[in-house]
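Hey Z.,

So I finally got round to the NAP thing we talked about over coffee. Here's the setup:
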Amino acid sequence: MTRFLILGAKGQLGSSLQAVFKREGHVIALDRSSCDFSDPSSIRAAVRATRPSIILNAAAYTAVDRAESESDLAMRINGEAVGILAEEAKSCGALLVHYSTDYVFDGTKSGPWLESDPVHPLNAYGATKLAGERNIQQIGGRYLIFRTSWVFSPQGNNFLRTMLRLGQEREELKIVDDQKGAPTSALALAMATRSILTADPLPNFSEVAGIYHMTCSGETTWCGFAQAIFARAKPAKPWAAVKCIPSSEFPTPAARPANSVLSNDNLKATFDVELPSWQSALDTTLTALGIFAADFARKY
Ligand SMILES: NC(=O)c1ccc[n+]([C@@H]2O[C@H](COP(=O)([O-])OP(=O)(O)OC[C@H]3O[C@@H](n4cnc5c(N)ncnc54)[C@H](OP(=O)(O)O)[C@@H]3O)[C@@H](O)[C@H]2O)c1
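And the result:
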């Protein structure tokens, strides 16, 4: 039976991976309390004790703005710890599945970014995630790195949940409209990962080892995402009015790319896997939260 080790078990993706993989083999899910990425010995002990055949790493330092002032800690978790994990995976013969970010790019390209495009992170978080990618590639072995973007789920810290809260607390929300990307649900990521790892026949993971872009299809801006949330979610009272603004009117510690839309063509060509549109993934997530307006209309 395949032994899956899921790390970062309490995060958005870690939780979805647990739900999606629970019937696919023996699943061991560890959170920070039993595998702390700021402590190399904790990572080594966790892998050696569990002897997984596949490691799914959803643990990461994801506070993009805070990473500007905590770049050493972010590098330890997103860069150095990932290298240690790759060493352990290689020495026990496990396939390492790791997730990275659209923020490795600087946003200057007009079309979707390819895996072969030059990387140039604009912020500390992107630089630390890039270091993690490079550490895995340098160590080699069997690995898959999936770069994704704008992750949301019914739990945790994400833009969807922030909008659902602020949209009820405030009368007007000003949202940035000059950064475009692909909102991607943690569930869609977990399901695409499962399709790849349970395919029949299985791919030869030594031959396909590498970086793949994995996002929901389509694109929007943060303001477009907010408008879609408020158009679809059933509110207790009317939603705040949305005003689209340029990034210059909403300064943040970390700079963000203007265009971080990723091309998923390579994922489709290699694994025959496609994620749903971001709108469909949003509807599924709102249904899970019990507030998708179309479900409401059907029921009441
Ligand atoms: N969120 C996004 O918009 C986004 C976009 C692009 C790529 N990604 C990538 O997608 C992956 C999954 O992200 P996510 O959205 O699921 O993030 P998340 O919800 O923030 O979950 C990250 C998890 O990592 C854990 N973690 C943090 N520091 C740790 C440490 N020192 N040791 C062990 N665990 C630690 C956190 O634990 P605690 O709960 O204890 O803090 C949390 O459970 C990450 O690789 C991320 O870089 C995310």
